[in-house]
Amino acid sequence: MFEYLGVLIAVILGLALTHLVSGLARLIHERRTVKVWWPHVLWSINMIIYVLGIWFGMFWWNSLKEWSIQEFFFITGYCTVIYLLASLLYPPEFPDHLSCERHFFDNKAWFFSIQILAFLLDIPETVAKSTAHLRDVPREYVFYIPIILAICVVGLANHNRRVQAALPVAWLLATLCYLTLTSLDKIVSG
To answer: How far apart are CA 69 and CA 92, in angstroms?
Structure first.
């Protein structure tokens, strides 16, 4: 069953990744008419890391032998939310003289709200993998999720340009620490 679902996961997350990478490429190609804002570029990089991390994490489901329709819809829905999150960073068509900062602030509430939803969906997905004995919940996860959710809540509530510029840096540092610590934990325990 996972092979079937894996194709759908690959399509949805592949579209998210394609949207992000295409957006960054368009910034390069249209650099003379686009006003680039570095926090927006960093959010793009963060979301690429996030999509790839989720895509990697989905492979654990490969060991689940029996699937319910609820599990199928949940995983598909979760991936769809991640695609929606990625799609908010770049418009489908670049208007003349796009300001990335303006575009980000115009979509800020949606971006952080959907990011909160994605991380809230990550909790039951991660616990379900543990319950099904596919993967233990990393102990660092208990610290990582509240930190990321706090970053998102601050982003949702705050309109200050400097705070908004600090948030993608904080998100990246938290994520890199989480990935590094969980990797070191595997090396030490392996």
So the answer is: 32
Q: Which residue has the higher pLDDT, 120 or 183?
A: 120
Q: Judge residue 86's burial from the number of C-beta atoms within 10 Å of its C-beta, 0-12 exposed, 13-18 middle, 19 or more buried.
A: buried
3-class secondary structure per residue, the chain: CHHHHHHHHHHHHHHHHHHHHHHHHHHHHCCCCCECCHHHHHHHHHHHHHHHHHHHHHHHHHHCCCCCHHHHHHHHHHHHHHHHHHHCCCCCCCCCCCEHHHHHHHHHHHHHHHHHHHHHHHHHHHHHHHHCCCCCCCCCHHHHHHHHHHHHHHHHHCCCHHHHHHHHHHHHHHHHHHHHHHHHHHHHHC
Give the whole-angstrom CA distance, residue 42 versus residue 147. 18
Structure pTM? 0.91
- For residues 71 and 94, give the distance between their C-alpha atoms in angstroms, rounded to a whole number: 37
Average pLDDT, integer, range 142-161? 97
More confident residue, 39 or 135: 39
